[in-house]
Structures are given as C-alpha cells and as structure tokens.
Amino acid sequence: MHLSIGRRRRWAAVATALVATGALLTLPFRAHAAVTGPPPQASSFDHVLYWNSVFLDTIRTLPRPGQDPHAGDPTFLARAGAMLHIAIHDANWPAAPVTYLPKITQQNPSDSIEATMDAAAHRVLEHLYPYIDFDANLTYALGQIPSWVPAAYVQGGRADGEKIGDLMIAARSGDGPAFDTSYTQEVNVPGAWRQTDPDRLPVSPNWWRLKPFAMTSGTQFRPPLPGGFGSYDALVRSPAYAAQVAEVQKYGGGSSTARTADQTQAAHFWANDLPTTYRPVGHLFAITQKISRDQGLRQNETAELFNLVSMALADASIVAWGAKYATPIDLWRPQSAINLADPSVTPGLTPDPNWRPLSADTAGRPFSPPFPAYVSGHATFAGAWAGVMQRWFGHDLTFTAPTDDPYANPRTRTFTGFQQAAEEDAMSRLWLGVHYRWDAEAGLKSGFDLGEFVYVTRRDQ
Parallel, antiparallel, or unpaired for β 14-18 and 24-28? Predict the structure, then answer.
C-alpha cells in the first residue's frame, strides 16, 4: 500500500510556494545555506537544542493532575512550541533579519545572545506552564556561558530576553477564542462525528479561530471537503466513501491479518498519542533535533530551523482543525463508520459492531482520538515539517528517527528522505485504524504546501 497522492515528485529543480496574493511563484531549489551573522556562540553548548529538550521533557508530563487538562493536546502543544522557538529565534536577532516580534534595543550591544535566548525561553515556558518551575533549567543554561563573559553582559542579556518573552506573550494574548471548547454534535446523522468514548470530549473544536503565525489566513491551505462531498447524505451514499471505509476496516483493525508486520510497526512508531510520550508535535521536534546534531548545525542555524519548523507545525494545527470542525463535514472516525455501517445506505459495507482500531491506550484498550477524522493532524503536521526540512537539508538525506511510543518495536526507523518519512507518518494513521486514506492524502498535501510557504516567506535569507 502506497500513498497515492500524486505528490511523489522530485522537487530538485523547482518548488512552488503560495504567496499572500494566492499566486504561485516558481523558486529554484537549494539546500539551506549556512547562516551568517554575529561571531560564533560563546561555547559549544547549543542553547536552542537545550530548550527544545526541556520542552520535550515537559510535554511528556502533560497534562498534570489538577492543572490545564488541554495542555497535552496536539493543538496546544503546537502553539506552545511556536511561541517558545520563535522567541528563541528572535532573541538571536543579530542573525535574524526576519523576525516575528518587534526588535528590541539591547541594554548594551555586547549583551550575551545566549543569555537573551535563555531568558526568553524561560519567560515563555513559565507563562505557558505556570505550575512548573523552570528556574533550575535557566540556571543550568546560563551556567554554560563561559566564565570569561562579563557578568554585566549576561545580566543585560537576561533583561533583553525577558523583554522578548513578554513581547511573545503579548503577541498571542488574543488567542482566547480558539480555546473555547463548546461544540454542538449532530445527533443520529450518518457520517457526522460522534464520541466513541463518553469520557473523551472533543479536542479543540474552535482551534480554527487561532491567529496564524505565518499564514495570511486560517483558511489559506484548508483542503477541499472529503471526496468533494458537501453533505453527509451524499458522502455516505457514495462508492468512494464505501471504498475508504472498507480499506480501514481491512487494514486498521486490532486483529487485522491484512496489515503487514512493517505496517504495524510503522503505525505504532508514528502514533505518540499517549501521555508520557512527546506527542506528534514533539516527535517531529525530536527528529529535527537529532538531525540537527547529526548534521552539525551551529546555534544560529538551529535557531532559524526550529523557528521555521515550529511556525509550520503551529499553522498546520490551524489547517487540520479547520478542516475537522469548520466545514460542512465533521467526519466520523472509522470506528463509528464500521460499527454503524448501514448497507441500505452504503452498499458494499458490512457493519461490525465489535470492530476496534489497532490504536490502544496505556492499558491496552482500543480508542479513537476524540475529534473528527478529516483531515489527519499527523499527516498535516508531517507534511508541514517535511516541507521545511527538505528545503533546508535537501531531498535525499538519509536519517534514523526515534520514537517515544510505548508500543513501538523497534524504537527507531530509517528513511531516505523527508517525503518518505512524511508519507509513512500519514499512512500510519490508516494502519492504526483511526483515519481514512483521504484524511492522510489531503492533510499531507496541505502540509507540504504550508511548509513550503513558511520556508519561503519566513527564512532569514
């Protein structure tokens, strides 16, 4: 089974990017050049990668009992990752001509950039997670600045970083409407999303209202409706829908005999849906971090790369959740489609009330994520990530990626390019039994276009 998305193209000669006007520009492909800017960092310690690791460690503990129950949701994590990494990037402003935040005036031109990054990261994280103490992390990071750097420059950098952190917090202070959890479920409508577990409430139903970080609007890369159908009745009566459901029923069930061993491994490898894992957004950050280390990127470069990746992932959450909740079709999960199939409405489908997906919680109980199927968040995140990464490193970089998922065995997989990894990530959701093929295809396409757009419009040079 291969991803038949019509996007298995080699972008070695050109890449297309959507500009604010909606027109297409043809841009020559090139791997990202080394960043020029201020002198090299004060030590070999990469402050960008350190704070990314702090963020990943934090994700694994979310949500915490008695605290924000949504902190571990993929949407909130994508926004948090962007706020953190954009602030770090903009703190490195001498090497960042393209910034998201207004440039500050340093207390002293010789203020420590590393201290500025550290303080900006600390300020954003303590705002996002006020119930977690990040002071020890700040102390450790500042301690990596060589002792010969004057204390006044370190203190000046800290003050500069706190200003940048506050600017980031202020810039996102209007995001409240996206946090609204109200949702009206369409009752007894075949095809319309409904809870498969009464204890799992719909996640981020108004996330499409979030102000984009790089896109010109929240609908800029929103995909067409599933199969092009504008109503539930037309959708569930179509042969195309029947084929989509039958494929997941065959390959995505917990007891499927059609799914190969490698597809099962891939399904678990990319999942990372459970608490104690770094979730899909953190997974892509972790892979980015490993590749950055393997390729020997300098701190200026990691600051820019994580800035681009984090913007792409945050806006991908808006694209995906807009398709899930802000269109005429809030598509039900395969579990509902198979359990409640009606052959008189959808000829060719056989209902199976006992069918459950391969996807399982930490206790081994099957579950479907509590939000509509179309489009796949994993696929959209993966496409956006790959769109940035292959423009930076090229199309043919071979890399080995890790995973946090407890069901993954082995815990690493090797890929010959970012597009291959993104396509497998997208298709893994079908093999896990929680998405249809068109969820993967449409999410991946929108994600690739978004990643290209972010790279072209937000890169430093």
Answer: antiparallel
Between vectors from CA 74 to CA 443 and to CA 304, what angle results, nearest 5°?
A: 80
Parent domain of 121: 14-181+188-458
pLDDT in tens, 226-270: 999 999 999 999 999 999 999 999 999 999 999 999 999 999 999
Report yes or no on 1 lying in a domain: no
In tens, the pLDDT along 114-147 reads 999 999 999 999 999 999 999 999 999 999 999 9
Angle at 311 between CA 394 and CA 160, to 5 degrees: 115
Spacing of C-alpha 62 from chain mean position:
16
- Tell me the pTM: 0.92
Cβ burial of 374 (10 Å; 0-12, 13-18, 19+) is buried
The tokens describing 232, both together, are: 């539930």
Taking the C-alpha atoms of residue 356 and residue 373, their distance in angstroms, rounded to an integer, is 15
**17, containing H or E segment:** strand 14-18
Q: Residues 14-29: pLDDT tens digits?
A: 333 333 333 333 233 3
34 in any annotated domain: yes
Domain count, the chain: 1
Tell me whether the omega of the peptide bond preceding residue 109 falls within 30 degrees of 0, making it cis: no
Task: For residue 254, give the CATH number of its domain.
Answer: 1.10.606.20
